[in-house]
Amino acid sequence: MISTNLKNDVHSELNRLHRLDTSSVRSIRRRYSKALKTHSPEKVIEFVRSLLDGGGWGERVVAWEILAGHSGAFSLVDDRLVEEMAEGLSEWGSVDLFGVTVLGQAWRDGLVTDTRMIAWAKSPDRWLRRLALVATVPLNSRARGGGGDSQRTFRVCRVLLDDRDDMVVKAMSWALRELAKRNPRLVEDFISKNEDRLARRVTREVRNKLKTGTKLATVTRR
């Protein structure tokens, strides 16, 4: 009953927003994070599930950020739960949000297995393949608590070297550029060894990142 009532309250507040943007949604999320702070992990998971059931982007932001911020509930994340939450994702905004907020951090912490991630990297579903790459970002991002994990990052990247789906190519570039901040020499070596298989966009953007600090080439003015 708690989850149903709270779900309805969240949904009503989101519908009353004049503009559904990240800042507005997070202002709502913060209130519910505080309200659920003392609830049991199981109740928080129940609430998260209820929000994701038929919810839109706003509900996903609230659900996943509450889950990530509740240590007890987050400790219950496993392969089965992430499979459930990833089901039906079909646009990059939600895929990336889930990948960096929940999935990648759970994988980094050993709650989600390498087996699950490699299976998604091999999936015929373009969004699951993108998700596997996006999940490497929290392994390496200082802002998200990553200490650097070239082994697992490269393991996923190797599965997708020949993939030319635009959503996957962009995620490959992102994954390697994030790792390049932690270990540029390993990334340069990886790019050099696999240049004949990687999409040109990936090699161009990652090398620009290594040379200039940005994925876009800089123009020198004279």
Gyration radius, in Å: 19 Å
Alpha plus pi helix count: 14
- Helix/strand structural class: mainly alpha
Helix content: 55-70%
Strand content: under 5%
The SSE order reads HHHHHHHHHHHHHH
Average per-residue pLDDT, rounded, comes to 94
Shape: elongated
Report the count of strand segments: 0
What's the short story on this structure?
With 222 residues, the chain is mainly α. The protein contains 14 helices and no strands.
Could you explain the architecture of this structure?
This protein has 222 residues and is mainly α. 69% of the residues lie in helices and 0% in strands. It contains 14 helices and no strands. The mean pLDDT is 94.
Secondary-structure map with pairings?
Layout: H1 2-16, H2 22-36, H3 41-52, H4 57-69, H5 71-74, H6 79-86, H7 92-108, H8 114-121, H9 126-134, H10 137-140, H11 150-159, H12 166-180, H13 184-193, H14 200-212
Helix pairs in contact: 1-2, 1-3, 2-4, 3-4, 4-7, 7-9, 8-9, 8-11, 9-12, 11-12, 12-13, 12-14, 13-14
Kindly list the characteristics that best describe this protein.
222 residues, mainly alpha
